[in-house]
Structures are given as structure tokens and as C-alpha cells.
């Protein structure tokens, strides 16, 4: 009935025009929505939580945030923190965003080809979409240029991943490689994503400077405070009495006592407010048991030459002295004794058939470590030998067996087990040789943002437009689309005007016309709204592969369908109302 | 001619719903103009940005470039670590191009220059690779990415027996021709690439809008003919031929399109300038001055051609359907 009233040819034209108009409107909406939402959320991959960025940074790509904050936040129960670096660069002239990642676990779970290697190194993982558009396979060696420095990095494609979000359009590298590509100094990241803490609380926490008051007994040496990256943030002389107060930003700190060649871990604390601690441990006397005969009478001297008296008890000589480095004379030989806790020393341990072992010591960045103390311990805790070493390689001769080497380069301490005979052992001190210092002002610049705010800043820096202006364009486009669809409705009704006049003359009221004609048109509108949304998504995916900074604008079928339905229904409502008024007039 | 004048006169009195037609054309054209003016401004700004960006100093490619150093690159897993091995006949130039700092000497045949991160693997100055003992001639102390790299000679790489990818390193602008695999700093090429993407997106948006304009004009023309069918019947009864009517309707659509496109041009430029200045004042964003260039004329021409053609088709179709 409705088809007869509306005239078949006009209805066919109406359907085609409606489909074309709605499809184009949906396409434009999908494009704008894709840019503002998809790209925005993907640039950080920050779908939830709070993002810490440097205040004043134009985008996440130019932000600098101390990595130590992420390491500290991870130690708070219930809080997840991930530091990332983001470097936009080009490969064969095509933009590619390279993400430096702290923890590759999520990527390892999404590998579709190859694998995510363990540890840092010259490797890269490619998102499935990026590998497709760049035509790269696992095993390829690629060069990437830093956007800000004249430095190229050669990397091997170790795997291809699929995470199902916009990160499939980018590449992932170890955090250190990402930081180098971004031109970030050591210990910095582009941003930190935090989950499990409210935005205001987080911003206050990272921006505030807290007082740390340390009370201690008067003693030789120094008290050093290390941050979670083992960077020395403060050093206090322990020789002056009285509590000392220093201002520090939020963080997890380790407090170390150190004297020449000696370091001892005193305590660790999470500084989240003004805190006072009392350090009394370094002043305590430590016991040294020397397994020598009663007649050998060992002599123990402190660094200042002061003699420490010993007593013969339970078959060995016992000395009590504060933490420090001592010289023990026994059997006509001198031995260095690092006294950092209860220690047993056996001067007869080295004897008989000896094997040679190489102990290699370096900083985290591979630099040579000079002038450190190396001590060799048996598994039962007995000190076997101890010596100062001038360079990276130390050769030591010991009887066959298992040992533990302890390297003390105040304020750092590292241990590793090795066997004789064997290949020796590599010991890496838990710090870099020359870390940069982070100024307190950087902490005050930090801002905790929602993912939308972080994305908006990034879109602005990339395209010169804000999500607000994109929303304004989308709104204007919606109005124009509604005009277009209303016009099409009017055309249909115009073509059927004569038939409708006849119906009215036959006594059909507004309600009957609504049921017989307009309800059917609404059905068509909704059907074409649905069809056009799907068609628009298909066209966008197959024919218009739009990308910004290498990120493909992903179709958003659900949002596009909702938009299409709202547009079709609103246009129908306006047309119905307009025609009703005309008829009543 | 008098028929055309008469139809235009009817239209000017507000019949045939021409006001709505002009409004539609002007709104669509305005949005197209705004998008295009901002796109041109963006292109100009990005060109300036590209000029002030730090130009590339080093280029790497898989094809030979003038004055380039040939490098064979391969990877190796050693004691659970992935290492990059670079071999070049001219390791000194490669080190210079990488801006690397070296402690020790350049590698000769059977020798390696080893990244600092691999120092502990090189016991007593010798590093064993695939069972082959090779002397360490020195260490690379920076940059950081070379900490896991080894630089050697092609002959040594052949002895090790690894397959390698051939790359060419050159100082820019030695290899200015073509697009290289990578360049550093890459900011200039990045600006160019992102600008290209953004302009392509805006161009697609412009095409969608003009297509929507065409569909809307065609339907509006049809509706308008239907509105004016009584007037057309009067003209027919007064002896106006179908050809004369068609000519007059085409002239009407050309006139309406011209008015709509002109108004749209003004609306688009003024609107985009007002929006940009409002955003600048409200959000502190930089003011982007809309730019009217030759490309904008092309878009205006397209809008005019499409809207007038679609309007003519719609008007003529509505006139014929009516069977006058």
C-alpha cells in the first residue's frame, strides 16, 4: 500500500539518494571520529588510568618524565605503572611510531610470527599492520633515524605482533633503544601510565618535595641515598652529629652506609610524606672470627691504624669492631677484611692445588669499573680472600670448588657465584657509570592527565587542531547531512503529494497517514541507516586507508551505526513534523 | 530570454524554494572552503616547519648512494644476547658517521671493535664467535645502541660465516636523490610525511562533502520543480516550449549555484577564521590564518560545476516527471 502511495520510481530514487547521502555522512563521521578518538587513544596506547607527562610538553613525543617514578610507583601495592617512550620517525619515507616498552609481556602474548627476545638489544617487534604496510618480514635488518639527533639505529625484526588495537600500526623496542631513538637522556621516559591511583592524588604525590630526616650515631664514613635506578641522590657525612633533613621528591629510596671500599645497605623506604628515620646500625660492633691457631696471634688494624684487640675463644680468634675495612696480619701475611656483618675468615683456605678464575666487573652501561674491593666467599659464609682491584678484569687463584664473589664499589655492592675450574664470572654493578642528575624543577613540572587530555595535546601538536574543533566540524557535518536527508524526504513526499491528497480527500487523518506512509518511511530510514553504516565502514577499510603518523584510522562500526541511526531518525522526525504542519496549514 | 527573466523573477520572490537551495549550496561549499583553506594553511605552515626542522645529516639505504660507505649488517645470538655485527671496508668512516667514540684501534683482519656492553664477553682481549677466536682491537664507548654491536671487516665477517644485509651509509645530502630507508635527524622527512597524510585525509573529506552537495542539489532541484509545477504549466499554456523551459531552468541552476558558491566562499573563509581565533582565545592554540590559494579555486570550481549540474538535473527531472 505504502509503495503504491509513494510511487515506485520515486521510492527507488529516494532509496538510492538516501543510501548515498547517509553513506557519505557516515564516512565523514567515521573519518573525523577515527582521527579524534582512535588516533588519540592510540598515540599513547593509554586506554585507561592516568598518564604522567611533563607539563608544557607539546605532546607525549616531546615529554620527559623520570623513569624512577615508574619504578617507585610499581612498588606501591595495587598500583601498576608502565614507562614508555614514543619516537615518531620514518622508514622509506613512511611515518612509523616506535614505542619503547618497559615490559614486553603483553607483546610476547600477541606474537603472530617470530618471538619477543628477552632482555634489551638491537631488535624490534613490528605491529601486524605496520609490517604489512612496510612490507617487512621477521629477520629483516632495518635502520631507523632519531627524529631529533643525527643518530641511526640498526635493528633486527624479531617478531610481528597483533594486539587488536592501534599499536598494531607501530613498532615496539626495548625501553633503552626507544629512549635513544627519542633522544632522551638516561633515566628518562616519554610518559608513565599509572593504574590504581586517582589523578589528583598522583599529581600531588609526584610534584611535592618531602622532608626526610635522618638521625644517626656519629661514625666514620657517609650515608648515601639511592633512588630506584641506583642513582645517588644525596650523600651526608656521618661524622657530624645530629639529625639531618633533606628535601626529596616522591620515590623508593635505599639508604647506604659507605666508607672506603665498604658499603652496607641500611634500610629502604617509600617516601610519600615527611619522614624521619633513625639509623643506629652502622655504629654497632660486628664480629670477626679468624680461624687461626692460638699461637698465631692475629693482629687486626682499622683504616686509621688503630689496633683492635682479639680474644681466643671456642678454637678461633674473635674480634669486635664497627663496620669498616680492616687489615689482618696473620701467619706473616696481610689480608684485607671487609667487616660488614658477622664474618668468619679462614687464612688457610687458599692452599694445595689452585685453579685460576677470571672475574669481570663492569657498570650497567658496559663501562670499566676501576678501584673496587673484591671478596671471595665460600658457600658456608667463610671469607676466603679479599683484595683491591684496579680494573675490569681480576684473576684469582683458588682451590677447586664453588665460591661467591662480592664486589664493593661504594655505594654499590654486587655478588655472583662461580666455580673453579670454570670460565670465571661477569659481575655488573647495578648502576651506570655517569648518570645524569634530574633537577627538582622537573618533578614540579609533571602533570597527571587523563588519556583524553594527553591525546588531545598530541593531536594538536600533530595536526594543529583540537578534538574540540574536530567535534565542531563533525557537528556541522551532521547538520548538513540532516539537511541532505530531509531534502530527500521532501522529494519523496512531493512525488507522492497527489496520492496523499486523494487519501486525505477520502478522509484519511494524520494518524492514518503516519501509519500508512510515515512509519514505512521510518522503517526504510532505519534500514538504510544500518546499511549505510556498514557500507561506510567497508569503503573506509577497503578504499580509503587513511592514516596519520602511520596509524590507520580504524573503522568504528558501532559508533558509526549509532550516528547513522540518529541521523536518519532525526531527519525523519523533522520531515514528519514539517509535513504535518503543512497539511494542517 | 523573457522566460528566463520571468522564472528568475519568480525565484527571487522566494518561490521554487530557492532560498533553501542557496543555503544548502553555501553551507556545503562553506565547509569545503573551510576545510581546504585550513588544509592549505597547514601545508604552508608545515612547509615552513620543514624548513626550520633540523635537516638530515646521515642517511642509510639499501641502494648505493654517492659517497656512501658500504656496510654489511648481520645479527648473532651470543650467550643469550642479540648482537649486531657491522662490517665495512672503511670502519673509520662508519664510526665517524655514527658519531661513535672508540677506545683502542680500528679492527683489522681477524679483529673486532666491540661495544662496551660486550666487554665482559671478551676475556683477555679475545672474543669467540661461533668457535672462532677473534682479537678485540678496541671498545666502542658511545652511542648507547652500539653497546651491543661489533664492528669488523668484511673478510672477518666472511670467516665467521654469517649472512648479511648490505646497507649504505652516507652523509646528507650526498644521497639526496630518492627516499632513503632512514635518515637522521628524521624530523624534516617526518613533517613531510605527516603533512602528506593529513592533506590526503582532508582531501578525502572535501571529496565526500562535494559528493554530498551533488546529491542534495539534485534532490532539491527535483523538489523545487515540483513546487513550481503550477507556474511551469502557466508558461506552457502561454506557448513556452520544453526546450525554452529547460534552458531557463539550467540558467536558474547556474545562477543559484553561483550565488550559493559565492556565499559559501565568504562563509567558509570567515567561519574558519572566526573558529580559529575563538579556539586561539579560548584554548590558547596558535591562530591558523585560512589561506585562499589556487587549490581553493579548483575546489570552488568543482563545487560550482557539481552543484549547478546536479541542480539542473534535479530541476529538469522534476519538470519532466510532472509531465508538463
Structure description:
The complex is a heterodimer of chains A (585) and B (324). Chain A is built from 13 helices and 36 strands. Chain A has 585 residues and is α+β, with helices and mostly antiparallel strands. In chain A, strands 1, 3, 4, 5, 6, 7, 8, 9, 11 and 34 form a ten-stranded mixed β-sheet that branches. In chain A, strands 22-23-19-26-29-28-31-32 form an eight-stranded mixed β-sheet, with no helix packed on it. A four-stranded antiparallel β-sheet of chain A has the order 14-13-16-17, with helices on one face. In chain A, helix 12 runs antiparallel to helix 13 (557-584). Chain A is elongated and about 135 Å long. The mean pLDDT of chain A is 84. Chain B has two domains: 2-53 and 188-321, no CATH class; 59-184, no CATH class. Chain B has eight helices and ten strands. Chain B has helices at 2-12, 18-52, 91-98, 154-160, 187-227, 229-237, 242-283, 294-321; strands at 58-61, 69-78, 81-88, 101-104, 111-115, 126-129, 132-142, 149-152, 165-171, 182-184. In chain B, strand 6 (126-129) and strand 7 form a beta hairpin. The model of chain B has no long low-confidence stretch (mean pLDDT 83). At the A-B interface, helix 2, strand 3, strand 7, strand 8 and helix 6 of A face helix 2, strand 2, strand 3, strand 9 and strand 10 of B.
Walk me through the topology:
The complex is a heterodimer of chains A (585) and B (324).
Chain A: H1 2-6, H2 8-44, E1 50-54, E2 65-66, H3 67-73, E3 80-91, E4 94-101, H4 105-108, E5 111-114, E6 123-127, H5 128-134, E7 141-145, E8 152-161, E9 171-174, H6 175-182, E10 188-189, E11 191-195, H7 199-207, E12 209-216, E13 222-226, E14 232-237, E15 244-249, E16 251-259, E17 262-271, E18 275-279, E19 285-290, E20 299-301, E21 307-308, E22 310-313, E23 316-322, E24 324-330, E25 333-339, E26 343-345, E27 355-362, E28 372-377, E29 382-389, E30 393-398, E31 401-409, E32 412-420, E33 425-428, H8 440-445, E34 446-449, H9 451-463, H10 467-495, H11 497-505, H12 510-542, E35 547-548, E36 551-552, H13 557-584
Parallel strand pairs in A: 4-9, 6-8, 12-18, 19-26, 26-29, 27-33
Antiparallel strand pairs in A: 1-11, 1-34, 2-10, 3-4, 3-11, 5-8, 6-9, 7-8, 12-15, 13-14, 13-16, 16-17, 19-23, 20-21, 20-24, 22-23, 24-25, 27-30, 28-29, 28-31, 31-32, 35-36
Helix pairs in contact in A: 2-9, 2-10, 2-12, 2-13, 10-13, 12-13
Chain B: H1 2-12, H2 18-52, E1 58-61, E2 69-78, E3 81-88, H3 91-98, E4 101-104, E5 111-115, E6 126-129, E7 132-142, E8 149-152, H4 154-160, E9 165-171, E10 182-184, H5 187-227, H6 229-237, H7 242-283, H8 294-321
Parallel strand pairs in B: 3-8, 5-7
Antiparallel strand pairs in B: 1-9, 1-10, 2-3, 2-9, 4-7, 5-8, 6-7
Helix pairs in contact in B: 1-7, 2-5, 2-7, 2-8, 5-8, 7-8
